[in-house]
Amino acid sequence: MRSLLFIPILVTPALADEAPLRTVADPDKDLLRYIAEAEAKATTTPETIIVDDGPAPVDTPSSGVRVVTARQLELTPHKNADDLLRVVPGLYMSQHGSEGKGQQFFLRGFDAVHGSDIAIRVGGIQINELSNVHGQGYADLGFVIPETVGGIVSRKGPFDLEQGWFATAGSIDLDLSIPEHRGKRVGYELGSTNRHRLVLVEAPEKGPAAEMIAANIMHDDGFGVGRGSEHGSVIAQTELRAGKLRFRPLVVGYWSKFGEPGVVAIKDINAGYFDRFDAPAGELGGRSQRLLTGLGAQYSQGDDDVTASTHLGWRGLGIEENFTGFLDSAEYGDARRQMHRAVTASGRISWRHRVTPWLRALSGIEVVRDQIVQAEQRITGAGVVWREERALSASILSGSAWAGLEARKGRWTATGGARVDTLAVTALDRLDPMRSGDGMASAVSPRLAIGWRSERATFSIAAGRGQRPPEARAFTRRASRENMDTVVYDGGDPEVTSATALETGGELRWDKISTGATVFATWIDRESIFDHISGVNALLDGSRRYGVEAFVEASPLSWLALRGDLTAVDARFVETGNPIPGAPRLLASAEARLDLKPWSAGLAGRFLGPRPLHHGATASSSTVLDAVGSYTRGRWTFALQIDNLLASSWNEGEYHFASWWDTSTPRSEIPRVHLSPGRPFGARIGATVQF
Amino acid sequence: MSRYLVLSFALAACTSTEEAARVDLPVSTAGTSFAPAATDLDYQVSVERMSVAVSGIQFTIEGEMHTGLAPPGTVAHPGHSAGGEVTGELPGDYVFQWSGQTRPTLGVATMIVGYYLGANFSFRTAVAADVPAGDPLVGHAIHLSGTVSKAGVSKPFDALFDVEPNTNVIGAVFEDEINETSTETLGFVFFPTDPSEGDTPFDGVDFFTTFTGASIEIRPGSDTHNIIRRAIQTHDHYGVVPQ
Fold first, then answer.
1. CA proximity to A180, closest of A34, A4, A49, A36
2. FRET pair for A127, CA 20 to 30 Å: which of A80, A145, A153, A527?
3. Residues of chain B with C-beta less than 8 angstroms from the C-beta of A623
4. Nearest to A616 among B20, B64, B235 (CB)
């Protein structure tokens, strides 16, 4: 049976009264459908949309949600899947390596490093890695082929029951589907940095949007020195039906190689020792690999909706980098090599039962098993190991369960409940087996969201708690300190870091314009981190983040869509009042999309305000404008993408720490500002032929 | 409209990177005399002269480490190993000398402004260029001299200590708010008695039983040397006083 849904004229993602504001609780099941609805709503004429039957998505009212459709993503300037995330309002990403290394994320006053505070799922599978050697929650999206992303749903804050580990600042779901341009496609892109990218897509015209095989291979010299990268990936997915059961098998293969240029101290640039595009770390770099299989399933019968998914994956990451020169070792240099291998298996089931016409019971469980092997070595610039710093094997078992209720009555919607997340770790220290250890950590997260909507307005208020798990190495025993005074702090037990969040906001909609604002606050009582330098679990003082987000969207013409948003956050440690280093205080973005077939174009601009760094230093502000344009004639589409249209000299990352590269100068441990340069002006041209 | 948008962005993008504010402050040794230390065996140890060969003087802020929730029995302290962040330094080799007289400035430290809570330095072996000819410190790291008294009996003592290379004092007591207008001198002090716990480096040494002669001479290799060295190289007995 198919259900009919009438969609009136509106501006994406403003939603009509008939279609309540939705966040997607189970992306593996609901995301595609939700995005299909949102995309349909972006059209400019009334029409009837046929939506596949399936369970109704959970409706968690939250104003910190944005849904971006495949067409909107296509008109967003990008050269990889990472860039697609720039559509998430208030999200700032910084690349301090080169394409292929995970981005550093900043959201709602969090420095989420490589993913420690943003839960990212692709095709319903969590990408954040428990205990990656390079950073807790490391999220590597390099394997995602941009053409296979059918939509993005971002949810800021931990207000949805199904947001698990790492969703302390929020979560992002990327749907793997190709709702448009079905058929065979071959595309080639040539860029000004000697970038060559070939993409092949097979998406059967009459198949479901999820059915596809896509492959791409890329080489790029990168800008400056030491930023070259190469990668290849394959994504295959289909959808099978057996009665009321729907299955979505997925297979992914990925390999990449990338440079790790390091970052440059501004004092070294001023002294003429380095150029801003230099690579102090020389030829160091990394490799990343992934093999992944997944199977999602959906079943609906009467009052019950059940979704389930499982996946099995293998992951490899090797990184060689040097950010501090010869500061730690004047003899050998400070380069280090990190190696990480993981086999991950997961299973997840979500059950929704309609108790009354207006009340549903929500419940689910998720289990993740990780087997990891990791090592860290100090190496010379030539790659010779001179000290082993870490050799760890660990088994990680993560279990989560959630239960709650969803009520819809008239204009009101409410969801509430709680989830429990537990982590059990057995860590074998292969360098010092006496330090091997095990333990558990768990946390309870209550969540409540209430929303009200009318035809022209939406209002919501939500409260919840998100959790960041400790990494496996935190479960090893403390280092021997027999030669030190007994009152020296030698670390505490590993703990879950809990973030309590509150937000309220609303949205107003007219025929061609909508606007909204959200006020949010997040508190962390104490933050548990594993200090890799001293080898102890350390507690940071509490922190709090107060902020506001606002957006305006307009569609003044049938072929033109505009959007602007602004996020302002005051993020500080409570005890000292110091700002949280790196967290943007002000971030604004503007988007313009022109869709006048056969022409289409997109402009995306970002303004990043001055950011506080450690110890009172301040990072520069920046403005970057990227553009994409395309022309389609028959089976051919020709595209031009321009990075940094204003040719701004901007810094993508800035950091405050000590380094010592010019060894002819006196060694100093006093921190200085280092920068990772942003993309200079560049262009890429591409041609795609559709069969 | 696009033109105004671009212009707005361009105007907004006018701030550049700012390094942390910093100030240069002189460093010296402080204090003209030491109060006698009362040991657990009821000796009174009066240190009259002390010399310590050091290198790599650093000053640290606490950072954002949570100190109030340290596990029972432990006390968080600033320093590289426990949350302290180095934001001030006086690189190079120096000799701390306390001899009852105000000492000249050792050098000028560069300090990032902030609230300081600790100081670090490394012990080293003194060389001839560090001190006047004939100074017993040469070849050693620490030299102490003074008087040991008990029950009305006093004996002079002279002690030399060798310290293993790369032995560091992490977290010497130093509390000072330093801003861009600060002009104070950072004076290193030695505490014969730990001001927080009341212990002394000489605890456990029965001087008059071990040394039956008219004077006490402590030299590397002896048990007494090792007992005192173990305590005298800890951060508890050093501090920095703004002057």
1. A36
2. A527
3. 9-10, 12-13
4. B20
If you ran DSSP here, which 8-state letter would residue A180 be given? S
- Retrieve residue A39's tokens: 């995309």
Q: Give strand pairing partners of A361.
A: A353, A405
Q: Give the start-to-end residue ranges of the domains of chain A.
A: 3-690
- Amino acid A34: pLDDT: 55
For A503-547, give the DSSP string.
EEEEEEE-SSEEEEEEEEEEEES-EEEEETTTTEEEEEPPEEEEE
Identity of the amino acid at A431 = L
SS3 state of residue B129 = helix
Per-residue model confidence as pLDDT tens digits over A421-475: 999 999 999 999 998 999 999 999 999 999 999 999 999 999 999 999 999 998 9
- Using CA coordinates, name the residue in chain A closest to B229: A483
B74 within 8 A of A488, measured Cβ to Cβ: yes
Q: How many CB atoms neighbour CB A225 within 10 A?
A: 18
Taking only the tens place, the pLDDT of each residue in A143-196 is 999 999 999 999 999 999 999 999 999 999 999 999 988 999 999 999 999 999
Environment class of residue A31 by beta-carbon count within 10 Å: exposed (0-12), middle (13-18) or buried (19+)? Answer: buried
User: How far does B172 lie from chain A, in Å, by closest CA?
Assistant: 12
Contact A616 B110 (CB under 8 A): no
CATH of A3-690, one of 3.40.50.720, 3.30.450.30, 3.40.50.80, 2.40.170.20: 2.40.170.20
Strand pairing partners for A25? none
Report the alpha-carbon distance of residue A587 to residue A568 in Å, rounded: 7
Report which residue type is found at A343: V
Q: CB of A622 within 8 A of CB of A640?
A: no
In this predicted structure, which of A70-79, B26-35, B38-47 has the lowest mean pLDDT? B26-35
Spell A512-530 as b/e; 16+ CB within 10 A means b. Answer: bebbbbbbbbbbbbbbbbb
Nearest to B144 by CA among B43, B46, B54, B240: B46
Identify the sign of the CA torsion A16, A20, A21, A25.
negative
